[in-house]
Amino acid sequence: MPFRDLGELLDAGLKLPIRGKVYTVPPVDAETGLRLQRLAEIAAQVADVAENGGSLDGVVLDDAAEVDLYRDALGAAYDEMLADRVPWPALKLAGVTAWLDAAVSREAAEAYWNAAGSPEASAGNRATRRTAARSTRQPASASGTTRTRKATAAKTATGTRGRKS
Predict the structure, then answer these.
(1) Is the pTM for the entire model greater than 0.85?
(2) Distance (Å, whole) CA 151 – CA 117
């Protein structure tokens, strides 16, 4: 059986309803996806530093970098939202949701969106947020293969990943 075209297999994009209109966020290109995934890795490091009482100086995104993140993650939907004068909190929520979808998982994006961006409601506690931040897709070997989400989920579901016994 020949391989099917990925266009038939992959999701066509993220649908975000805002004020009665559904915005379609297209999948990001490979270069943007890699950049967004790197930001997810930095977010995991920031979470670890913050929880251990370290300094976050120089790690936080400035305003321009934050807008670039939203523009990159939302693609064409970003300009559409600006044209529709979507309120800033909605644009910000949509931007982070699209970033999570591209860099972490659709499940993380849905949880964040449905909790209106509230970390307490979407993640429950710090340990859960850390696990979500660490669940970015990374190569399992130098051959370029990747772990499946099931394998990653099973590995992180125990809650002991990275902890000393």
Answers:
(1) no
(2) 27
b/e map of 89-102 (b: 16 or more CB within 10 Å)? ebbbbbbbbbbbbb
**DSSP characters over 45-97:** HHHHHHHTT---TTTS--HHHHHHHHHHHHTHHHHHHHHTT--HHHHHHHHHH
From the first residue on, what is the mean pLDDT of each consecutive set of 10 residues in the chain (165 residues)?
79 90 94 89 80 67 76 95 96 94 90 85 48 46 39 38 41
For residue 27, CA distances in Å to 47, 81, 96 come to 27, 17, 14
Distance CA 112, CA 132 (A): 11
Closest CA to 136 of 61, 34, 64, 51: 34
